[in-house]
Amino acid sequence: MKQKILILGAGFAGMWAALSAARLTALHERNDIEITVLAPQPELRVRPRFYEKKVETLVSPLMPLFNVTGVNFLQGEAQRIDAQGKCVWYRNAQNESTIEHYDRLVIATGSYLRRDRVKGAAEHAFDLDQLETALRLEQHINQLGQQPDSAARNTVVVCGGGFTGIEVATELPHRLRAILGEGGAPRVIVVERGNVIGGRYSEALRDVIREASDELGIEWRLGAEVAEVDEQGIILADGERIPSSTVIWTVGVQASELTSQIAAQRDAQGRLHVNEFLQVPGYDDVFATGDVARATTDDKGNIALMTCQHAIMLGRFVGHNAAASLLGVEPLTYRQVNYVTCLDLGGWGAVYTEGWEQEVKLTRAEAKKLKLSITSELIYPPKADRKIAFETADPLAAFV
């Protein structure tokens, strides 16, 4: 009977986990290990680009790649993990509850955006969390020009000044001017709880974000907290109302709720603590990766962020190690020493930094060119070619 590696999720981490596991089993000429990806659809949804236009195009089919690498795909949505029984209950494409057993489990179900902590946010705010919700936002923005001119129509409020909030806010001024026309007078307001712009970033990076915001005409409400979202806009904690028919929620990212079904330590975002091999302590047969894993990236104690940059490498290592544990070969210690930030700043350009200290290396057009290369080429799946796929799935080759 074949042994099975079951991977939950087909995002960046899940896809690369499957390819890496397939690579190692192929190198050892083992046909008795089956690699199966369980996910709602056989496609990579390029979530980091959901703030852009034409969201429906930001998907990449995975079946051609899985077919040439020998990865099985099982369509469905995981609902319950039985770690003791080594099985996963899932809802299949026919909406039936069924079960899949495993010898090794890789949890790569990503993260989601919580909007239930502020009154009205779930009902009235837009978000970029999933393809469907990003499409809803894009359709709404494209129809703004058909609405009567008003302060609410012309004002977009972005709740949260983190990475996603900054990218969507800086993307909007040019797009809104094209949609609303010359008389539209669009406003983009970022509401941020922190007292400085880009408070999580280095001073040099904050200065660039501030400069871009000023040139693009983006308004920041610092030290502000959203108390309520309704059909007319938002109400801040100090009582101020900002009229807006377009409120975009970008804060409150949490790891997939499936992590709560594993009796192990989790962090404040719900991520499972993992060891250096990306195993969940106490479970030799359960691994976590991507946004559901709290993993140490280097000997300095830096922790992987919930970004595709880390998910891609985490996936390569976890797939290798899950397969290695069945093959009886030594696992690899996950390490991702190099860290960069490449932040899109809309019509102003972009900014690129290196290191956890976020030293600014490129800005404006030069950084924009690099950003476009990363988001349109580097983060996409490899070609549906077995040799190329396995070469790029090697965690050590990719690491070097």
Could you describe the 3D structure shown?
It is a single chain. The two termini are 37 Å apart. Helix 1 (12-27) packs parallel to helix 8 and helix 1 crosses helix 10 (386-393). The protein is of the alpha/beta class and 400 residues long. It is built from 11 helices and 24 strands. The chain is globular, with a radius of gyration of 22 Å. Helix 6 links the parallel strand 11 (155-159) and strand 12 (187-192).
In a nutshell, what does this entry contain?
The chain has 400 residues and is α/β, with parallel strands linked by helices.
Show the helix and strand layout.
Blueprint: E1 3-8, H1 12-27, E2 33-39, E3 43-45, E4 59-61, H2 63-69, E5 72-82, E6 87-92, E7 97-101, E8 104-107, E9 111-113, H3 121-124, E10 126-127, H4 131-142, H5 151-154, E11 155-159, H6 163-180, E12 187-192, H7 203-216, E13 219-222, E14 226-230, E15 233-236, E16 241-243, E17 246-249, E18 253-255, E19 272-273, E20 286-288, E21 293-294, H8 308-327, E22 340-344, E23 350-354, E24 359-363, H9 364-378, H10 386-393, H11 395-399
Parallel strand pairs: 1-2, 1-8, 2-5, 8-20, 10-17, 11-12, 11-17, 12-13, 19-21
Antiparallel strand pairs: 3-4, 5-6, 6-7, 9-18, 14-15, 15-16, 22-23, 23-24
Helix pairs in contact: 1-8, 1-10
Pfam families: Pyr_redox_2
Family: Belongs to the NADH dehydrogenase family.
Keywords: FAD, Flavoprotein, NAD, Oxidoreductase, Signal
